Amino acid sequence: MSAPQNPVERADFDKVIVPSYAPAAFIPVRGQGSRVWDQSGRELVDLAGGIAVNSLGHAHPALVEALTEQAGKLWHVSNVFTNEPTLRLAKKLTAATFAERAFFCNSGAEANEAAFKLARRYAHNLFGPEKCEIVSALNSFHGRTLFTVTVGGQPKYSDGFGPKIQGIRHVPYNDIQSLEAVVTDKTCAVVLEPIQGEGGVLPADQAYLEAARELCTRHRALLVFDEVQSGMGRTGSLFAYMGYGVIPDILTSAKSLGGGFPIGAMLTTDRIASHLSVGTHGTTYGGNPLACAVAERVLDVVNTPAVLEGVKAKHERFATRLAEIGQRYAVFSGVRGKGLLIGAVLAEDFKGRAKDFVDAAEREALMILQAGPDVLRLAPSLVIEDADIDEGMARFERAVARVVQA
Question: Where does the record place the modification N6-(pyridoxal phosphate)lysine (predicted)?
Fold first, then answer.
């Protein structure tokens, strides 16, 4: 018999939670597919996907089954021992990608922390301590640890926490000339998101990623792709690099990898992985059996032609409706992104007002996101039903009308 639950309400957040978030006024309590119900029983359409996390929506039966089955077997043993789910997941991820080795952790920030440490250790071991510079893009986002937030090119997130990690250089995204100007023999890694997520849902140009690959090869630096937001089927390829045909040396994944269960992964080659020898890096929960069992099932479902092709078709359905709404209300200057990571860029008259549209959507029982003050972001389930897309877009249009007519 379960213990009685004390009632909670949104006002409790302001009393007991550290005020680093400003959540919506309602509390979701149940989800099914792409629908969510709050405490009052109101039904919402979810086009936010937990910020590109709920890759198979809410309470997907395959994931519930995987978690429930593993919960009855083994929850945690630490990395003093290995376990079956972590080995199965690693074998499937390496078989499906360029990689030969996997490192598991609990979040995208941890995956990137591991990637950046590995890049520096690799360069230190082979070329000496001077080869330690990391080049990343302005407006990038790589996590909230001190290292990853410094590599991310957004001072609003990294300022005010004391001395920053040194040896980080930032350049404009999609600017080949700027990249060429800073990558030198002191560079140990170039770190890029194939699609900038938090920076405005901005895809990389094909030539830009190709140039980054060539520069890294020429200067014996590692190319790191942060696919925390763009990976695991989000773009219609298992990972976005596959659509570009540009192969990194290290890839990071999280978010959609666990379908809602916390997990992160760093993927790389045998040659590079060998520089993280025993004791050089670790995490207590990394490779947790529960997380890996769920992520394995996510991979089994997502890495299929039906789902990946479906993502591309659903993109067109969203993009068509967004273009119609944008034209009817003159609110968007364009729609960009790949697959089901979509950004609607606000027109000049609505710049800076993304939050107004997010709030209006909530009043129409719709969950959406923003990517900065000028871009509305959609990152729904990869298997969202067409009926939910249509209903979500109908509610979205009503939300747009609210803002325009206010």
Answer: 255
Is 48 one of the annotated binding-site residues?
A: no
Name the architecture of domain 10-59+305-405.
Answer: Alpha-Beta Complex (3.90)
- Domain(s) labelled CATH 3.90.1150.10 in the chain stretch across 10-59+305-405
> Across the strands, what pairs with 268?
101, 250
What residues are labeled active site?
Answer: 141, 226, 255
Please calculate the CA angle 233-306-57 and round it to the nearest 5 degrees.
55
Confirm whether residue 228 is marked as ligand binding. yes
Q: Encoding tokens for residue 15?
A: 């009393």
C-alpha to C-alpha distance for 205 and 211, rounded to whole angstroms: 10
DSSP H helical ranges for 72-194 = 84-96, 108-127, 146-151, 155-158, 176-182
Is residue 185 within 8 A of residue 131, CB to CB? The reply is: yes
Q: What are the tens digits of pLDDT across the range 111-136?
A: 999 999 999 999 999 999 999 999 99
Scanning the structure block, which residue is given the tokens 């400003």? 22
- Write the single-letter amino acid at 123: A
pTM score > 0.90 for this model? yes
Task: Tell me if 177 is assigned to a ligand binding site.
Answer: no
pLDDT digits (tens, 9 = 90+) for 275-325: 999 999 999 999 999 999 999 999 999 999 999 999 999 999 999 999 999
Using DSSP, state whether 43 is helix, strand or coil: strand
Per-residue buried b or exposed e for 214-238, using 16+ beta carbons within 10 Å of the residue's own CB: ebbeeeebbbbbbbbbbbbbbbbbb
Determine whether the annotation assigns residue 141 to a binding site: yes
Start-end of CATH 3.40.640.10 domains in the chain: 74-302
Domain 74-302 of CATH type 3.40.640.10? yes
